[in-house]
């Protein structure tokens, strides 16, 4: 085996650049804090902080005053512990799989209990250790995904033995339509959560994700838990949300060419030119988080000019029509913008038929990353 270590990600000669603006992240955290004040704001940093690298993101949020972090899986929580100081609380949204309880308790990680099974396992662990173990209790307020349905909440409230040894910190639920300001479902879920809250009147509430924060203070509870808005995603259709973009993506040109009318472009010959066309092949594809659904739909930008994607997006490259630019503008090594001021995250997501969350979490590790 070769024992040298090589710097893989070097700025020079990279195929693409993912720039992550940590100042904007900090700005967004403070913006959300202003919205919820005096209610504190946790940070949801699941999926490696929405693909932006929890090891870089979490310390910035910690330094900005954040002391509560949510991840989805227990393994993510264990990893996150090394990126924040010991006074930070780390919560596991999915709760625990059987067998993870002891280690979770040892590490001081706090599960969200989503079912009677998870309650039972956590309670048994607490009793066998002889100490109280903290947890969040989640109620399903109408999403049918995670959390106890109302009947099970009632059963739990009736039989205090079921929660023996468990120190409940919050009653939590999750909004299904928080991005739609006028959705009736928001109010319905709030009512359901308040109903459950009647069974556990002492428990503070934890409800709002990013979109929920902009539904108003009724939704803020005692701890808000945004993710996407921290990372520059516009979280809802409420106008005027001043979230700053965090991510910028620029991709290098690999090759340019001029083809005559009738030329086929890309896999399957799915695109055929109708006139002489100048093309550029750029160095990112679906393995770099630019979905195949952008084929013949999306675009890159250069100097304010839209450069449509032509033909199918490949694994490592795609072809764009650069006829709208003066000849010679782009050549080997030139940069085009995929995400940035000319093409916000939401715009590329819409072209791909998806949401900003999926774009962010798919960007992958092949770009040179620069944290500012
Ligand atoms: C992902 C997630 C969040 C964060 O949602 P955003 O829309 O990204 O703010 C909050 N709560 C739960 C339960 C989640 O799964």
Automatic annotation (TrEMBL):
Cofactor: pyridoxal 5'-phosphate
InterPro entries, A to Z: Ala_racemase (IPR000821), Ala_racemase/Decarboxylase_C (IPR009006), Ala_racemase_C (IPR011079), Ala_racemase_N (IPR001608), Ala_racemase_pyridoxalP-BS (IPR020622), PLP-binding_barrel (IPR029066)
Pfam families named among the record's database cross-references: Ala_racemase_C, Ala_racemase_N
Keyword terms of this UniProt record: Isomerase, Pyridoxal phosphate
N6-(pyridoxal phosphate)lysine: modified positions: 46
Domain spans labelled Alanine racemase C-terminal: 246-372
SUPFAM superfamilies tied to this protein: Alanine racemase C-terminal domain-like, PLP-binding barrel
Active site: 46, 267
Assigned protein family: Belongs to the alanine racemase family.
Stated name of the protein: Alanine racemase
Gene behind the chain: alr
């Amino acid at each position: 085996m070769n024992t040298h270590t090589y710097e893989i990600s070097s700025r020079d000669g990279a195929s693409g650049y993912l720039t992550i603006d940590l100042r904007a992240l900090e700005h967004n955290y403070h913006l959300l804090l202003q919205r919820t004040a005096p209610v504190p704001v946790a940070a949801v940093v699941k999926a490696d902080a929405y693909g932006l690298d929890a090891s870089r993101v979490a310390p910035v949020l910690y330094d900005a005053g954040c002391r509560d972090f949510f991840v989805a899986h227990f393994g993510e929580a264990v990893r996150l512990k090394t990126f924040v100081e010991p006074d930070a609380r780390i919560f596991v949204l999915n709760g625990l799989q059987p067998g993870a309880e002891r280690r979770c308790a040892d590490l001081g990680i706090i599960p969200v209990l989503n079912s009677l099974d998870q309650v039972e396992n956590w309670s048994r662990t607490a009793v066998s250790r002889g100490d109280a173990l903290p947890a969040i209790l989640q109620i399903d307020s109408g999403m049918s995904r995670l959390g106890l349905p109302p009947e099970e909440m009632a059963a739990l409230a009736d039989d205090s033995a079921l929660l023996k040894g468990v120190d409940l910190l919050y009653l939590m639920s999750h909004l299904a339509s928080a991005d739609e300001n006028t959705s009736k479902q928001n109010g319905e879920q709030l009512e359901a959560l308040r109903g459950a809250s009647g069974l556990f009147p002492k428990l503070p509430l934890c409800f709002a994700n990013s979109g929920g924060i902009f539904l108003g203070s009724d939704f803020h509870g005692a701890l808000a838990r945004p993710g996407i808005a921290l990372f520059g995603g516009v979280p809802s259709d409420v106008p005027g949300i001043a979230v700053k973009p965090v991510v910028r993506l620029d991709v290098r040109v690999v090759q340019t060419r001029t083809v005559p009318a009738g030329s086929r472009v890309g896999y399957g010959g799915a695109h055929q030119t109708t006139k002489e066309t100048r093309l550029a092949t750029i160095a990112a594809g679906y393995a770099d988080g630019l979905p195949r659904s952008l084929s013949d739909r999306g675009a890159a930008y250069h100097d304010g000019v839209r450069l449509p994607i032509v033909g199918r997006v490949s694994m490592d490259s795609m072809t764009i029509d650069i006829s709208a630019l003066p000849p010679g503008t782009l050549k080997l090594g030139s940069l085009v913008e995929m995400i940035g001021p000319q093409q916000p995250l939401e715009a590329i997501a819409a072209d791909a038929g998806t949401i900003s969350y999926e774009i962010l979490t798919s960007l992958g590790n092949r770009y040179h990353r620069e944290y500012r």
